C-alpha cells in the first residue's frame, strides 16, 4: 500500500482568480472539485501526475513559501514568453535575493506565491516537463520521508540536498537542505494524499506515522482536522473524513479518501 500524491493545494483569498492565473500559465483546464474550491487538471500530454487545487482561506501571506514551482524553458525566447505571459495574467517580478546576474527569473502570482522560470539548458531539469520541480525548503530527513511515503526513488542525495521523482515521470520534488528556515505558521501550499489501491485512510495514516509523520488536531496550524473542512474555512483538508498530518519538518499535509 502506497500513498498517492493526488493534489497540491494552494490556500487562496480568491481561489477562482488564482486558478485562472495558473490555468493560463500552465495551459491546464478547470474541473469539478468534489471537496470545494477550484481544481486544475493537467493537459492530457502532461506527465505531472497530480492536480492543483485552490481553496478559500483568510490566512495572510507573511513569509516566503516553503515550496514553489520551477518552470522550465526550451530556449531564451521560450523563457521570455513564459515570463511575459505570466505578467500579462497578473504576475509580478519579485526579489528573493537572486541577484542581478541570475539566469532564472523569479515571479509571484497574484497572491504573492513565488515561482521561478528557469533558464534553458538546466541539466538538473532536462528530462522534466514544463513544471520541472516543486522546489522546497527542507531537511534531508524530510526528503527521505517523502521518498518512503510515496515510494518515489531518490534522484538526488548530495550535501544534504535531496530530490525525488515519480517512476512515471513528472516534476521532481526537491529539498534544499540546511539551513532550513524556522517554521513560523501554516504553509500556504499543501500536499493532499489518497491511499493506494486497496488501502484506507486510517491504515495509510498509521503507515505514515510509522515513517515519521505526526497527526494534527484543532489548533495545530493545519487549518483543519479529521472530518472537518478547516477551522479557518480553508477547505484544504480535502473534505469530510480527511486527516491532517505533518511531515518530519512540520509541513502540513492531508490524507483523504478518493472521491467516488
Automatic annotation (TrEMBL):
Entry-linked InterPro entries: Glyas_Bleomycin-R_OHBP_Dase, Glyoxalase_6, VOC_core
Highest taxon listed in the record's lineage: Bacteria
Compositionally biased spans, kind Gly residues: 218-241
Family matches, as CDD domains: VOC (cd06587)
Pfam families noted in UniProt: Glyoxalase_6 (PF18029)
SUPFAM superfamilies, per database record: Glyoxalase/Bleomycin resistance protein/Dihydroxybiphenyl dioxygenase
Limits of the VOC domain: 127-258
Region (Disordered): 165-185, 214-248
PANTHER family: CONSERVED PROTEIN, HYPOTHETICAL FUSION PROTEIN
Protein name: VOC family protein
Species in which this protein is naturally found: Catenulispora subtropica
Amino acid at each position: 500500500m502506497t500513498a498517492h500524491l493526488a493534489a497540491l493545494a494552494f490556500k487562496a483569498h480568491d481561489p477562482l482568480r488564482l486558478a485562472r492565473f495558473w490555468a493560463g500559465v500552465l495551459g491546464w483546464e478547470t474541473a469539478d472539485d468534489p471537496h470545494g474550491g477550484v481544481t486544475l487538471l493537467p493537459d492530457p500530454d502532461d506527465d505531472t501526475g497530480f492536480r492543483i487545487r485552490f481553496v478559500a482561506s483568510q490566512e495572510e501571506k507573511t513569509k516566503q513559501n516553503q515550496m514553489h514551482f520551477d518552470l522550465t524553458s526550451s530556449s531564451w525566447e521560450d523563457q521570455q514568453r513564459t515570463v511575459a505571459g505570466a505578467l500579462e495574467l497578473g504576475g509580478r517580478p519579485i526579489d528573493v535575493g537572486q541577484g542581478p546576474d541570475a539566469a532564472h527569473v523569479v515571479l509571484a502570482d497574484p497572491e504573492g506565491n513565488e515561482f521561478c522560470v528557469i533558464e534553458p539548458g538546466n541539466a538538473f531539469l532536462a528530462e522534466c516537463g514544463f513544471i520541472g520541480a516543486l522546489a522546497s525548503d527542507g531537511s534531508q530527513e524530510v526528503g527521505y520521508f517523502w521518498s518512503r511515503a510515496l515510494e518515489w526513488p531518490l534522484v538526488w542525495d548530495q550535501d544534504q540536498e535531496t530530490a525525488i521523482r515519480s517512476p512515471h515521470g513528472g516534476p521532481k520534488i526537491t529539498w534544499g537542505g540546511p539551513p532550513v528556515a524556522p517554521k513560523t505558521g501554516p504553509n500556504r501550499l499543501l500536499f493532499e494524499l489518497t491511499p493506494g489501491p486497496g488501502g484506507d485512510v486510517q491504515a495509510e495514516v498509521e503507515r505514515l506515522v510509522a515513517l515519521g509523520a505526526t497527526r494534527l488536531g484543532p489548533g495545530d496550524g493545519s487549518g483543519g482536522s479529521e472530518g472537518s473542512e478547516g477551522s479557518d474555512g480553508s477547505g484544504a483538508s480535502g473534505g469530510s473524513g480527511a486527516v491532517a498530518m505533518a511531515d518530519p519538518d512540520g509541513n502540513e499535509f492531508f490524507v483523504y479518501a478518493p472521491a467516488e
